[in-house]
Amino acid sequence: MAPKSIATLTKLSFLILLVIFASSQAYDYHFIETNMTLYFQEYYAGPNATVNKLTRIPGNIWAFDSFGTTYAVDDQITQSPDKNSSKIARGQGIYITSSLDGANMQVLISIVFTSNEYNGSTLEIQGCNIQRADVKEISVVGGTGKFKFAKGIATFETICTHKSIFYSLIRCNFTVLHY
Ligand SMILES: *[C@@H]1O[C@H](CO)[C@@H](O)[C@H](O)[C@H]1NC(C)=O
Ligand SMILES: *[C@@H]1O[C@H](CO)[C@@H](O)[C@H](O)[C@H]1NC(C)=O
Ligand SMILES: *[C@@H]1O[C@H](CO)[C@@H](O)[C@H](O)[C@H]1NC(C)=O
Ligand SMILES: *[C@@H]1O[C@H](CO)[C@@H](O)[C@H](O)[C@H]1NC(C)=O
Ligand SMILES: *[C@@H]1O[C@H](CO)[C@@H](O)[C@H](O)[C@H]1NC(C)=O
């Protein structure tokens, strides 16, 4: 009798645990789709570099195509290609050359909105940048503020480069679903 009731009790507490740990609720959320085009004003070297070397693997050179090289990034993001156009956000995060042959780079960037209706909202971009591709497609894995529960896709294209001032203009188009 006693062992049986213990077994019943164990089953019961297991059920209670299940209820506690697997509690869920159905919501009738409607996703909103937002498309946007933004321009990253990137200085990859020089006195006002927005991409700065952080670390590397000892013995490897510092370079975008050298495995392990890591950069801290804080690019101005504008609404149109012109550097002087409305500053809408900053692109802040980390680049790491992540393939042994140096071809691919792991990108971990937050788009931190600084004006307009999206001020204070963020989007998280994370994925593999195939550096030689003309159009890089990288996932949008999350967001905050106006972009809560965001997921989607972003493309990156280098529109022009001015080597003398270490400048690249990068166009980012994204499509995200969010609440
Ligand atoms: C966003 O862009 C996608 C892909 O280009 C398109 O299919 C969709 O209709 C656009 N959505 C809006 C809300 O403009
Ligand atoms: C760097 O920024 C400073 C201050 O904004 C500016 O005076 C200088 O011209 C810039 N240098 C380059 C090479 O862009
Ligand atoms: C952008 O602004 C700077 C200083 O504010 C100015 O020197 C430069 O000519 C402007 N560039 C363009 C393309 O308007
Ligand atoms: C964006 O939000 C910050 C913090 O709330 C505020 O200080 C700033 O003035 C806002 N900027 C614009 C352009 O609305
Ligand atoms: C990004 O959007 C612009 C228009 O805003 C369009 O001209 C360009 O083709 C798009 N790029 C990609 C890779 O879809």
Automatic annotation (TrEMBL):
Cell compartment(s), UniProt: Secreted, Extracellular space, Apoplast
Keywords associated with the record: Apoplast, Secreted, Signal
One of the protein's GO biological processes: phenylpropanoid biosynthetic process
One Pfam family, short name: Dirigent
InterPro entries: Allene_oxi_cyc_Dirigent (IPR044859), Dirigent (IPR004265)
Domain of life: Eukaryota
Keyword flag Methyltransferase: no
Signal sequence region: 1-26
GO cellular component: apoplast
Family that this chain belongs to: Belongs to the plant dirigent protein family.
Quaternary data: Homodimer.
Function: Dirigent proteins impart stereoselectivity on the phenoxy radical-coupling reaction, yielding optically active lignans from two molecules of coniferyl alcohol in the biosynthesis of lignans, flavonolignans, and alkaloids and thus plays a central role in plant secondary metabolism.
Entry protein name: Dirigent protein
Organism (species): Camellia sinensis (Tea plant)
Source species taxonomy: Eukaryota, Viridiplantae, Streptophyta, Embryophyta, Tracheophyta
